[in-house]
Each structure stands twice: as C-alpha cells, then as structure tokens.
C-alpha cells in the first residue's frame, strides 16, 4: 500500500521506536498523528514533522477514543496505525520480599496488551470506512511485541506475557479484518537503542550489544521504522510476526 498522501497514527510517538516511525512515515509523505501520554515529547515530534499531536493514554477507553476522533478530524481517515506505546518493568514472580504485587503485573499487561488492543479496535473501526485502493486495501496495523514474547528472561514475566499476548492477537485480528481489507502485522524487536537502554551505563550497553550475533550492536530506531514502511508497502504480507533482532536469542537471565 502506498503511504504518500495517506493519514497515519503512531502511538508512543514521542520517543524511541515511535518517534522514529513517525518521522519515517512523514518523510514518506504521510500525514502523521502522534499519540503520546507525554504531551511535551509528543508535541515536539509532531511539530518537527509537521504532524498532529493528541494526548492519549492507550489503556484508557475514553482517552484513546478522543485521541482517535481528534486525529481523524485533523488528518483524515487513517490508513496506517503503528502501536509503539508501551512500558517495561522487571520483577520476579516470587522474590526476596514474597510474591510480585498483582497491580504491577496488571499495569504492564494493561498498557502493553490492552492498550494495543484498544487502539486496534478503535482505529480499525474508522479505517474500515475508507475507500479501498486498487488492491482492495483500506489499511495496515503494525503492533510492537518483543523477543521477550518468545524468550522471556527471569524477572520479565509481566512484560513477556504482555508481548506474548500481542503476538497471539496478530493472526486472529488479521483474519477478522480481512473482510475490510485491513492487514495486521507485528514486529518483535530485540535490543534497540531506546531511551530506556540509553539510561544504562556504557559498559552495560556494550555487554548487551556483544550478545547480539550480527550485527553485534544495538538496533537503531530508524531500522525499526524501515521495517514498518516495508510492511505497509508489501500488500501480501499479513498476519505475521517478524523478529528484528540480529539473530539474538535471549538467555534465561
């Protein structure tokens, strides 16, 4: 599907993978709505790319619905949704102080998995009203999982479960939305140079990079964005989860 001239929504677009994706979509000629809980960061990216900003808590039904409606009014019916909003968090299920707090598990799953589903259901609804292109396509939804969905490490139970849910959501959503001409895909990135990793000491980052077979470095957000553009462009790619990890396979810890 062609990107130029079409509207796109990117959640978590204020930093990291989301910001890189918003910039890449805008550079390809898309009208981009940056949805972000951090208003300052989201507005800054939107201003930089000449896009639209809407404050959004992806895990909140009313906040997300308001942001989607505002985006449609500002840039038109979206043809692309990229779900990048998410949080981390590490905690053992049973640690030195006893069992993991249930609300900690719930928060990660709510933001990462329920937030992804929330945006998917809302944007697919408005996307389905667009006129199909010459290929019968109305749009593409790309979500962000993680290699932790397949090789979750000790302490990653909540994060791995949330990302595993996104992986499992991909195919049934693709099958359901086929009648609308909407494709559904997921990227499972490995270790990327995001604000979270940038906070780590240099020697720790070097150690993480060395664990990646080839290339032995952290992934760049722009490389994630490149894959998003390729997924949107390839009309036959649907219902797939694509790892983007330099052949990394995570160890237990």
From TrEMBL:
Pfam families documented for this protein: adh_short
Any one GO molecular function term: oxidoreductase activity
InterPro entries: NAD(P)-bd_dom_sf, Sc_DH/Rdtase_CS, SDR_fam
Annotated keywords: Oxidoreductase
Keyword Cell cycle attributed: no
Signal peptide boundaries: none
Family statement drawn from the similarity comment of this UniProt entry: Belongs to the short-chain dehydrogenases/reductases (SDR) family.
Listed name of the protein: 3-hydroxyacyl-CoA dehydrogenase
Species lineage: Bacteria, Pseudomonadati, Pseudomonadota, Alphaproteobacteria, Hyphomicrobiales
